[in-house]
Design a protein that fits this description.
It is built from twelve helices and 17 strands. With about 550 residues, it is of the alpha/beta class. The protein folds into two domains: about 55 residues; about 475 residues, Glycosidases (TIM Barrel), CATH 3.20.20.80. The strands form four sheets. Strands 1-4-5-8-9-10-11-12 form an eight-stranded parallel barrel, surrounded by four helices. β4, α4 and β5 form a beta-alpha-beta unit. α1 runs antiparallel to α2 and α3 runs parallel beside α4.
């Protein structure tokens, strides 16, 4: 990695002039030694200029390559909220967060701030935070004012203090970017801060056909363009998804593009490092590439239609900020995408949908992993851009404002027992970038928290990353359990899910000189490091360093 690239080579504009300064001084020295030979100095100055230009081009290109996170990403993410998080601090409206859980008075940003040290100790690198823009008193997915960061999760001051605490603990904050759609300030279409006209709304939006919208039957000349065609990368649909609840934004409109970039840069000045894009099947992937190129996040990930793995691949490919790469190399500047198929496969094999009877054979699939993480269509290692997870704010058990479970959210995808443990034993040891759910880590007990922590530590000690090679164990499959050897940059990680050591342990596949790193209810993980001297005891991976001083806030 570029030695000046701690923050995406942000110092390149200081480094390159320095190189030119050094070459100029060398040319001056040669000129003096040659007793005024202007020809020599002129020639060296020309070479200095050439070197200057080459370094500048190389560093700017490298800056673009590093923007969304390199291939073979070794980071681990935490989702830093859940559906009911916005209720914290609003005691009048929500005396209880859910039935039986009192609202203690802290807003959500204060909760995360106070948890920053624990997040660091868990060795999380990234934290996905809720939508930061002002919205209604809810989860924040109906943004009203992008440049007003007082929202249901807290005011701007507590917002900033949370980000300061995360930086101090070496955790990169990701903002939830909701720009597929937008809500009006008081009506369907009165957009404020920034102010947009109806020309920024897709012309086929339902507001133009709804008699109570205030813009019913509005002339075509006062509307935006149709939802864009996306069949070139998602054969399941002709045009981008039209969301029925709020106004679909026309991302081809110059003002929309300009203001979204302004919004993202504003968030960066607040202290955000990257983006989680909401509902990205609602607008063309190329716009993500543009927004990322203009704002250079350290990581970005999109939520693409849950059951459309082909569309997820196509979307990821088309988000690249640099398009010269071939095959897997093309993904170097692409956004990541959430891997819903791996979640679904785990749910069916060892989660709620297995009805209490684990089917470990299903974890083998085609012996190269589940879902997008195991997808090698067109010879491309899509696992490099797969973000694996077990639950998020949109899945599992969640409640309405009265604290009672929603009709379609009456149970979690994994129960708080062997199911959730074994599911984490899978995603935290396998390729992709794994994301841990806040509730699982903070609310489901200290035992589960410790086991998740041990799994993350084992992953990092072994150097397992998004592109790690996966070697499933046939003898374990014969024994009725799942086992794999995963190749990390620092050694090998071995995992067994199901049964006990009599069913499978690394020695049964002729592996040796390993140590046990983590274990739980029907699962175990071992690590063998390349440096044999370190195999004498369990290693603790270093904790993240302070990210530095936050930038000044700029709108």
């Amino acid at each position: 990695m570029c030695p000046f690239a701690r923050d995406r080579c942000s110092n390149s504009f200081f480094v390159v002039p320095f190189l030119y300064y050094v070459m100029e001084k060398i040319s001056w020295f040669i000129w003096n030694r040659q007793k005024g030979c202007h020809i020599v100095r002129k020639s060296v100055k020309r070479w200095a200029l050439h070197i200057f230009l080459m370094c500048f081009i190389a560093l700017v290109h490298l800056e673009g390559l590093l923007a969304q996170g390199k291939l073979q990403d070794s980071r681990v993410m935490l989702q830093g909220f859940y559906w009911e998080s916005y209720r914290f601090g609003h005691q009048a409206e929500f005396p209880e967060i859910v039935q039986g859980q009192a609202n203690e008075g802290r807003n959500w940003y204060q909760v995360v701030k106070d948890s920053a040290g624990t997040i660091r100790k868990g060795r999380f690198d990234l934290i996905w935070l809720p939508p930061p823009a002002k919205a209604s008193l809810g989860a924040g997915y109906d943004p009203r004012e992008y440049f007003n960061l007082n929202n249901a999760y807290g005011d701007t001051l507590s917002h900033r203090k949370m980000l300061e605490a995360l930086w101090a603990n070496g955790v990169e904050p990701l903002a939830d970017i909701v720009v597929n759609h937008r809500n009006g300030a008081t009506t369907w279409t009165d957009f404020k801060n920034p102010d947009w006209s109806t020309k920024t709304i897709c012309s086929d939006d339902e507001c133009f056909n709804s008699v109570n919208s205030g813009v019913y039957g509005l002339a075509d000349s006062l509307r935006g363009n149709l939802e864009e065609r996306v069949q070139n990368y998602d054969a399941s649909r002709e045009r981008a998804y039209a969301y029925g609840d709020f106004r679909d934004i026309d991302h081809t409109h110059p003002m929309v593009q300009k203001d979204i970039v302004r919004y993202l840069l504003y968030l960066k000045s607040m202290g955000y490092k990257g983006w989680r894009y909401d509902m990205v099947h609602g607008y063309h992937a190329k716009h993500i590439g543009y927004y990322n190129k203009m704002t250079k996040p350290t990581f970005s990930v999109g939520e693409y239609d849950w059951d459309k793995q082909e569309g997820q691949r196509g979307w990821t490919w088309n988000t690249a900020t640099e398009t010269a790469g071939v095959g897997t190399a093309h993904l170097a500047t692409s956004s990541s995408v959430f891997d819903f198929k791996t979640k679904d496969a785990l749910n069916g094999a060892i989660g709620y949908n297995c009805a209490g009877h684990a089917n470990y054979d299903n974890l083998y699939a085609y012996d190269n992993g589940l879902g997008l993480m195991g997808d090698n269509t067109d010879g491309i290692a899509w696992k490099n851009r797969a973000v694996t997870f077990l639950e998020n704010h949109d899945t599992g058990w969640r409640t309405d404002n009265d604290g009672k479970p929603q009709s379609d959210h009456q149970h979690d995808s994994f129960s708080n027992d062997w199911q959730v443990e074994q599911a984490y034993a899978y995603i935290l040891t396998h390729p992709g970038v794994p994301c841990v759910y806040w509730k699982h880590y903070f609310d489901w007990g200290k035992d589960l928290q410790a086991k998740i922590g041990a799994l993350v530590n084992a992953r990092k000690v072994a150097g397992v990353h998004a592109a790690s090679a996966l070697n499933t164990q046939k003898n374990a499959r014969t024994a009725g359990v799942y086992a794999a050897m995963v190749e990390g940059s620092q050694g090998q990680l071995y995992v067994r899910i199901g049964g006990d050591d009599t069913k499978w342990n690394p020695s049964m596949s002729a592996y040796s000189n390993y140590r046990e790193y983590a274990a739980g209810n029907g699962w175990k993980v071992w690590v063998k490091l390349n440096d044999a001297a370190k195999n004498t005891k369990v290693q603790a991976y270093r904790l993240n360093a302070n990210l530095g001083i936050l930038p000044k806030i700029k709108k």
